[in-house]
Amino acid sequence: MPSISILLILVVAATAAATGCIHDCCSNNTHAAGAYVNGTVHMKDSPWTPFDAPMTEGFNLTNGEDWSFEGVSADGQSGMGFTFSRGTVAGHALAQRMFLAVVWPNGTRFIESTFADVSTIQACKYATKGTWYNGTSGMNWTFEATNDYSRTLVKVESATVRGTFTLDAISPAIYPNGLVYPHPRGDNWFAPYLYWVENVPVGVAEANLTIRGTPFILEGIGGRERNWNSFAWAEISTSWDMVRGKVGPYTLMAWRFESKIDGQTYFSSVLMKEKDVIFRTLAQHVSTTEPYGSFNLDNNGTVRLSSDPSAATSLPESKHTGYVLEMVIPATEKRWRFEVDYTKCVYWFAAGSDGRLGGFVGAIKGGLVGGRQYSGRASGTTMEKN
User: What is the Rg, in whole angstroms, of the alpha carbon atoms belonging to the chain?
Assistant: First the structure.
């Protein structure tokens, strides 16, 4: 196992390579809407690449990358999700898109997609900044994050939304296999044509926004992640369920993804205590020797994901109301069990021709089986097939 000092040297070297910087300097990676290259685009898969770095070497007519954020209030009655996107997204090729959805405690929702002329990732020695800007509308979304992912500040100025969002990490940055960044065996490949890392699996979240003149204030937890795909989400996904949460001393992150490419189901489950990973697996199959987990749909709750009441057309409600997650380490006979119930739908809309995509906030309870049980808050996304 490499020493911490060697790992830090390798991370600094990787950052220098990604930024072009050897000393205290910054580099810019800028893409304009509509600009593209012909042919296949390489997707970065090195475990040493900083998580906020651009992960595609340009854009063709199919690939894209996202920086995604979530937040849930301490009472579970309001929530939000937003994404900085480059490339092909939601039927728009070569786009520079900002997506935002929120739900207030009274159930009122707001959802908006806006498009920038240009996006820039500025990588510096200690921090990385992203800017999505539209010179005509004046839209200007930015995120600025420390390179250890401990602190993220988002600022937004547009015709409809103004304000800030902050995220202070309480769990470590991880790869899908649950190893903590940086790690030589960290693997950011998750499923065919899909790469994923968690910059902040769980953090303390605060939002102070004004949306069309109405305040939106959130204090609770949240998280953020990166995805980069060779093809649009609708082309590679059949269904998925993803959840993050904080419950007592634990934080967790889990994703079950069914691939449209090979028909297989891919799975990741990570449990953390303080900033230590205490459980990680990619396995759903029961084993007598290796850690494994399960991620099952539940229908014992009272809230289903549904279309905004103001929508012109209503979609069928979600087929489930939450989840039951289990994590097992046979060698130590430890088993954790957590139940998640939706408390509010953040968004619910059609995804391609054969699915629905939703964002939720929820309540979570559980802990070590036979030990003390806790309650907390969760958020996540789901894609259902028709």
Answer: 20
The Cβ-side half-sphere exposure at 249, using a 13 Å CA radius, reads 12
* Residues 137, 367: Cα–Cα separation, whole Å: 48
CATH T-level fold of 4-385: AttH-like fold (2.40.370)
Q: Is residue 6 classed as helix, strand or coil in its secondary structure?
A: helix
3-state DSSP assignment of residue 176? coil
Contacts of 5 (CB under 8 A, 6+ apart): none
Q: Give CA–CA dist 84/121, Å, rounded.
A: 11
Identify whether the C-beta of residue 109 lies closer than 8 Å to the C-beta of residue 103: yes
Q: What is the pLDDT of residues 362-374, one digit of tens each?
A: 999 999 999 999 9
**CB under 8 Å to 323, separation ≥6 — which residues?**
241, 243, 295, 296, 297, 298, 339, 340
Give dist(CA 192, CA 196) in Å, integer: 11
Mean pLDDT of the chain: 94
Is the separation of the CB atoms in 31 and 132 below 8 Å? no
Domain segments of the chain as ranges: 4-385
Q: Is the pLDDT score of 216 beyond 60?
A: yes
Asked whether the beta carbons of 168 and 154 are under 8 A apart, the reply is no
Residue 129 buriedness (CB in 10 A; 0-12 / 13-18 / 19+): middle
pLDDT at 12: 46
Q: Which of 362, 363, 364, 370 is nearest to 336 (CA)?
A: 370
Mean pLDDT of 215-233: 97
Query: In the prediction, which pLDDT does 91 show?
Result: 85
Lateral strand order in the sheet of 292-298: 276-281, 265-273, 250-259, 237-247, 373-385, 355-368, 334-350, 322-329, 292-298
